[in-house]
Specification:
The protein is built from four helices and two strands. It is mainly alpha-helical. Helix 1 packs across helix 2 and helix 2 packs antiparallel against helix 4.
């Protein structure tokens, strides 16, 4: 059992380790910033993809905790929002490629 706002540590297999969901998302956000060229659409899509990957590894309670924290931080993980994010990402990548030619 973890404390409210905490989930099982996703990057360790030590039993009983937990980590704040906010801290995990902050780490993912920091990683997503590198190489995005200050394009919010790229950054947002990277965060969403990483959160979705992480959700697949968590138990139901931890999924809820992480999803709620993601929502508080502006990352909605429902199917419609993910599709929108993917479309915005594709559009900006296309624009960047076109601007280089």
């Amino acid at each position: 059992m973890t404390k409210p706002g905490f989930i099982q540590h996703p990057w360790t297999h030590q039993r009983g380790d937990s980590m704040s969901a906010a801290c995990i998302i902050e780490r993912i956000e920091n990683e997503a910033m590198h190489g995005c060229g200050l394009y919010y659409e790229i950054y947002h899509y990277r965060v969403v993809c990483r959160l979705l990957q992480l959700l697949q590894t968590l138990n139901v309670t931890d999924r809820i905790t992480l999803t709620e924290e993601a929502n508080r931080r502006g990352f909605t993980l429902d199917e419609t929002s993910v599709k929108e994010s993917r479309q915005c990402y594709s559009d900006i990548i296309r624009e960047v490629r076109e601007s280089h030619y």
